[in-house]
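User: Can you help me understand a structure? I only have the sequence.
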Amino acid sequence: MKQTQKLETILLNYFLLIAIAAMMIGVEFYFEMGRPGLQQDICVNTTAITDSINSTLYESPALSSLRNKIVVMFGVLTIVMAIVMMMFVKNITRPLQRTLDTAELINDGDLSQVIKIETHDEVGQLGVVINELTSNFQEIASSTSGMINAIESRIDDLSKTLDDNASDSTKQISLIRHELDSLRMFIDSFNLLETDIKE
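Assistant: Let's start by predicting it. Here is the structure, written out as tokens:
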């Protein structure tokens, strides 16, 4: 049960990192805004500001410091979000895309494909299940091919023992061979892994 919730835990950790960074920025901003004397620093004597504006552009040191802190805080948040997104792409999106690409090849009939398992989370478990499914299909195809060979062998033995006058039996044997050939063509349409199974 723990393994099936690993991907959920990873996603929650990613979003928790973003939430912690945002909370830290919010707390820092809250305490900076509540700092004693900030209001007094911002609201300086209006006549001094007016005189300063007339001569040069005036900027309160408190406002400048606050603006710089805001820029730094949002820069940190952007970096944290970028790191989380890169981790998300590396650990979730890319393995899912590789699994999907391989599953599409298997769906197209290439049963020789094997999904490389790199993690033991839900994405890795999906790869394991697809690999087992492909293996089961290969076993079915191999056993069906073996049955076809056995039936053809029996038909050959039966056709040798029949009289040449038994045209009805010959027609039946011909129909069975045609159906077996159709079944063999179906099995051969799959690209199977090379196995040591003797048919």
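Now, to help you interpret it: The two ends are 41 Å apart (CA to CA). Helices lie at 6-33, 38-42, 46-55, 61-107, 122-161, 167-188. Let me know which part you'd like to focus on.
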